[in-house]
Design goal:
Layout (H helix, E strand, L loop, with lengths): L3 H8 L2 E5 L8 E7 L6 H8 L14 E10 L2 E10 L3 H4 L9 E9 L3 H5 L1 H11 L4 E7 L11 H10 L4 E6 L8 H28 L6 H17 L1
Parallel strand pairs: 2-4, 2-5, 5-6, 6-7
Antiparallel strand pairs: 1-3, 3-4
Amino acid sequence: MINDKEENESKYKVEYLGENHSKELLSYKVIILGLYGVGKTSIINKLMKKVADKEYSPTISVDIKYFQVKVNDKIIQIQLWDCCGNDEFALSTPNLLKNTTIAILVYAINHEKSFKNLDQWKNMLLNNSYDHEIFLIGNKADLKEERKIETQQGENYKKSYDYIIKTFFETSAKNGDNIDKLLENIAITIYEKNEKVEKLLENAIKGNGNKPQILDKEIHKKNKKKKKWC
């Protein structure tokens, strides 16, 4: 029996191209949310192939980075938003959620409050954005002796919100566990969303020329993103 990971490996080839920002490419917004200290910045640095096992200064508000990946024959430019995780800043975060393609909710397995805080971020996403994918990540999986949130609790949370949370797994930004998996999930999710839009457009052209309502919405969003992010 072929599992999802094996199927994706055979269907997609994902290659990290490095930190880059081209005005010629559409940028896809990926925002990382979670309480202060869960390791969001470390995850980002590890995703971008930087050292992530040292102490970083806390993010004051928002830090935006760009990098590119190649999925099969297509280059995808990702605009990665690292948001401050303190409770006060959370009140101003909703305006930053617009035009999000993927939201990554992060908690630390040794930090109970960060897990309980997930509902806050999830609800803000539902109230201030649409048509985004949500990933749930339990970070600091290397701190096994300090674990307070069991893997099953993360899996149960994901199952409770299956209709909005696309995937869940644990990572370690310190030793790199599942960071490549996270990168692949980001890249493939964006690639598949693009394929869906292109297929809708192709079907509309082949039909009677009347674009379906969902297509109008997708094209409007893509055009809006191009104006804002490119």
